[in-house]
Design goal:
Elements (H helix, E strand, L loop, with lengths): L3 E5 L4 H12 L3 E6 L7 H10 L4 E4 L5 H10 L4 E4 L6 H6 L1 H21 L4 E7 L10 E2 L10 H19 L4 E7 L1 E3 L18 H9 L6 E4 L11 E2 L1 E3 H17 L4 E5 L5 E2 H12 L5 E4 L10 E2 L2 H7 L7 H14 L5
Parallel strand pairs: 1-2, 1-4, 2-3, 4-5, 5-7, 6-15, 7-12, 8-11, 9-14
Antiparallel strand pairs: 10-13
Helix pairs in contact: 1-2, 1-8, 3-5, 5-6, 7-9, 7-11, 9-11
Bound molecules: nicotinamide-adenine-dinucleotide (NAD) and uridine-diphosphate-N-acetylglucosamine (UD1).
Length: 337
């Protein structure tokens, strides 16, 4: 069935890949984005991939009038809410900027969607909400104890949605806890385009491969892992995107809250990623070992069983595709959009 979906932050990395899949499933999509961390170029790329038009509302989710107008512009069936800030270090330095964008922004959005009679929301949460639980495989029923500002903003929005769902059960909620998204659309037309020096591993490796950075610093080689480097549950952005479509289908049929991890359940080490990327791009990735990065854990990965049982969803793309698709995007667009 064709639905009309409002996608906040739809011009961003995960949002743009999800929008492509929504259009491919014949949904009508409106992106609401302030372009604080994305480019309007994305719209043209999405249209090239899908041959379909996307409606755009350039607005900030904290701007109540604009959000209200957005909900007046069309009767939406659901909202997918990606808009937010996500840099852990920046959150520590500017906590109020993070509480304002992520928490206040989500509250304005939620109030206005309910006011407009829109009762389904899929929210971008993060494995960061678990904090440092003292075990490596994360199940959804672990206590939430985030250890940074960014993670706390995500937990607060989760709480806001759960509490509102209890008081107003017509609101159906899906909280999707992403592990480490990597990869790009196989066309090479859309991908991750970080501003400045990348904080995250995959975009850094990709910029070394394309000659924009000299070498990767591997933060720590003395972790209690097989090769001493950190291990993460990297998940292809295409799998993450399909998880959102599965969540929308779930909300169409169920009124109980959906709270699931989206990961592969299979961690890879930093060195394994470096070597896999080297194979994908056909050249060695220069690296040096550096001290551990503050706040990093040795290893964590998803227990994805709940998402599989509730949604029939599993991650399908392996490490080779994660690297090949990132490399295609990076080499075709060395300076991003
Ligand atoms: P992104 O920065 O590429 O996309 C976010 C989009 O939201 C951008 O287009 C940005 O311009 C927009 N935006 C930000 N603040 C806004 C505001 N106040 N009003 C309107 N638009 C705004 O990030 P992403 O990697 O695509 O992440 C999407 C969501 O998933 C975020 O909420 C992020 O916290 C969450 N998440 C990301 C990761 C990750 O590693 N990428 C992991 C877990 C969770
Ligand atoms: C980070 C965030 C997390 C967020 C996730 C995805 C922290 C503490 N956590 O997770 O909240 O959800 O990004 O956006 O920042 N590494 C290097 N060299 C680099 C970069 C990374 O060795 O230049 C290593 C890290 O030490 C880690 C692994 O690569 O072991 C993955 O790092 P990264 O991609 O930054 O993701 P996380 O730290 O897992």
């Amino acid at each position: 069935m064709t639905n009309s979906i409002l996608v906040t932050g739809g011009a961003g990395y995960i949002g743009s890949h999800t929008v492509v899949q929504l259009l491919e499933q014949d949904h009508h999509v409106t992106i609401l984005d302030n372009f604080s961390n994305s480019s309007p170029q994305v719209l043209e790329r999405i249209q090239r991939i899908t041959g379909k038009q996307v409606a755009l509302i350039k607005a900030d989710i904290r701007d109540r009038e604009s959000v209200r107008d957005a909900f007046k512009s069309r009767q939406f069936d659901a909202v997918i809410h990606f808009a937010g800030l996500k840099a852990v270090g920046e959150g520590e330095a500017f906590p109020l900027k993070y509480y304002d964008n992520n928490v206040t922004g989500s509250q304005v959005l939620l109030e206005e969607m309910l006011q407009a009679g829109v009762n389904r929301i899929v929210f971008s949460s993060s494995a960061t909400v678990y904090g440092a639980p003292g075990q490596t495989q994360y199940h959804e029923n672990l206590e939430l104890a985030p250890i940074n500002v960014y993670g706390r903003t995500k937990r607060i929005v989760e709480d806001m949605l759960r509490d509102t769902n209890k008081a107003q059960p017509q609101l159906r909620i899906a909280l999707l806890r992403y592990f480490n998204p990597v990869g790009a659309h196989p066309s090479g037309l859309i991908g991750e385009d970080p501003n400045g020096i990348p904080n995250n591993l995959m975009p850094f490796i990709a910029q070394v491969a394309v000659g924009k950075r000299e070498k990767l610093s591997i933060f720590g080689n003395d972790y209690p892992t097989p090769d001493g480097t950190g291990m993460r549950d990297f998940i292809h952005v295409q799998d993450l995107a399909s998880g959102h479509l599965a969540a929308l289908n779930y909300l169409a049929e169920n009124d109980s809250p959906l709270i699931v991890n989206l990961g592969t359940g299979r961690p890879y080490s930093v060195l394994e990623m470096v070597n896999a990327f080297g194979k994908a791009c056909g050249k060695d990735i220069s690296y040096q070992f550096s001290p551990r990065r503050a706040g990093d854990l040795a290893e964590y990965y998803a227990d994805p069983a709940l998402a599989t049982s509730l949604l029939g969803w599993t991650a399908k793309h392996g490490i080779e595709e994660m690297c090949m698709d990132t490399w295609r995007w990076q080499s075709d667009n060395p300076d991003g959009y």
